[in-house]
Design goal:
alpha+beta; YefM-like fold; 28% helix
């Protein structure tokens, strides 16, 4: 982990970001007056656009899947609520 001063972080922000994106650094600590202030890390770049429907075709949903909703609600104390 690299540690940089606040001044150096402002001066070399582009390089710091590039190091994080390329994986050269996993996180960078920015110090203010010699004391740790913040950590900078690469943003999670997981593609969430494919999350909906990701399990499509992997299992069958029974036609009566909602048949026990009332009983389950009673078990969780949701009596009289629908």
């Amino acid at each position: 982990m690299q540690t940089v001063s606040l001044f150096d972080a402002k001066t070399h922000l582009s390089r710091i970001v590039e190091d994080l994106i390329r994986g050269k650094e996993d996180r960078v600590m920015i110090a203010r007056r010699g004391k740790p202030a913040v950590y900078v890390t690469r943003a999670d770049t997981t593609d969430v656009s494919r999350r909906i429907g990701i399990a499509s075709g992997r299992f069958d949903v029974p036609d009566d899947i909602d048949g026990s909703n009332r009983q389950i609600a009673l078990l969780f104390g949701a009596e009289g609520q629908s």
